[in-house]
Amino acid sequence: MQTGKRYHNTKKYQQTKKYDLMKKKLSGTSGETIAETLVTMIILSLAVLMIAGAVVSSARVNKKADNTQTAFTADGIKENTQNVVISEVNEDGSPAAGGKSTETTVKMYETENHYFYYESPGQ
Amino acid sequence: MIEDKIKRKLKSEQGTSIFFGLLLFLAASILSVVMINGAVTTVKRVASDRKTEQNYLSCSSAAKLLRDKFENTTITRTTVIRNYENKGPGNSYTTTDVTWTTGTENDNSEEISFEEILKDHIKNLAEQPSASTNTTEKFKWKISVKSAATSGESKMQDVFAECTISQKAAGAGGTGGNTDSGFDISVLLTTGEGNDSCQMVLSLTGSQNKVGPIDGTEAGTGTNTVKTSTTTNTYTWTAKDIIYGDQERTVEEN
Predict the structure, then answer these.
(1) What is the pLDDT of residues B92-145, one digit of tens each?
(2) For a tag on chain B, would you pick the N or C end, based on fewer CB atoms within 10 A?
(3) pLDDT tens figures, B84-99
(4) Of A15-24, B56-65, B147-156, highest mean pLDDT
């Protein structure tokens, strides 16, 4: 084994020393002082609190999402009259210069879960 | 004595390692992030489902409205050929007048009807020079609900309709022994963006009824007599289908 002050300053010695300390720490029965143990317990409590909060929040959000009805249903439909505009536009969707437009009256329907659709008055 | 005991206890190194505490904290935070991420994803998926459903309703409503509009539209082209025969000295000459009308005439109001807009496009295509090889007319419409009460992100979005009018091949689909066979119309309707978008295709078959030429006379001026020949072409449409998607697809038979 190499010894001496010159060897103690080398990088290899420093790394070996750190590795030995870590190995001793992990496999040994010695730990930390009681103060550091108390700090560890506080950290663990925060971790448990974080998990508990995440569980509760995600459960609440998932329950709300499950209760949201996304399917179209024909119950409780409200009817009113609206105007629909058909206008000429360019390829990019902007209003066409000199483009014509026309309005037509339609029957607008709103379902209970707030979907909208319309039909021509003749239908 | 007691003080020594307390000091020994405080300085004692027997027990657990802070390393594992921090490791557990890291694991707990990762787990929390994963759970919350899952919940947020669920919420976004539900919102996307609603948007997709509404876009489908907007698109299908616009498709049905256009279908009804096209089916209730009648466009008439009246061609009058006048032959001015000069009984006295002078040459005879012929004039041709073409008039385009719709089934529902504008009652002098400032509003333009759907039929008037369509008539202009049909007229543009029909009056192409004979040497022209262009047999289609393309244009784009935006169909939007006017009222502010139904505008907004969760309400009806604007629907864009890309219309293509195609002149039918001569001799196909016409009646009355004519060669002007009418115009087919295909409309691609789109609304929404990305994964929430909806597309539909509305196909309409055009037909054309020709009456004439009917010969007649008109009162002339001076020594002219006017013989007329009137031909009337009436264009109408019937809807084939409203197809979900961006183009018509057929099932190939093996």
Answers:
(1) 788 899 999 987 655 555 578 899 999 999 998 888 776 566 688 899 999 998
(2) C
(3) 877 666 677 888 999 9
(4) B56-65
Supply the ipTM of this predicted assembly. Answer: 0.75
Are the CB atoms for B135 and B147 separated by under 8 Å? no
Which H or E run includes B187?
strand B183-191
**Residue for token digits 């007649």?**
B216
Q: Whose structure tokens read 């990019």?
A: A92
Residue A20 contacts B, CB cutoff 8 Å = no
Residues of B with Cβ-Cβ distance to A114 under 8 angstroms: 154
> Residue B86 pairs with which residues in a beta bridge?
B224
Question: How many beta-carbon pairs under 8 angstroms link A with B?
Answer: 182
For chain A, report the end-to-end CA distance as a whole number of angstroms.
98
Taking the Cβ of residue B197 and every Cβ of chain A, the question of whether any pair is shorter than 8 Å is answered with no
- Structure token pair of residue A8: 């103690």
Neighbouring CB atoms inside 10 A of A104's CB total: 19
Out of B22, B42, B143, name the one closest to residue A62 (CB). B42
Q: How far apart are CA B208 and CA B164, in angstroms?
A: 18
Alpha carbon dihedral B57, B59, B64, B66, in 10-degree steps, equals 150
Nearest to B205 by CA among B171, B162, B160, B166: B166
Instruction: Give the 3-state secondary structure of residue A48.
Output: helix
Which has the minimum average pLDDT: A35-44, A109-118, B231-240? A35-44
Residue A79 CA, chain-centre distance (Å), reads 37
CB count within 10 Å of CB A118 equals 26
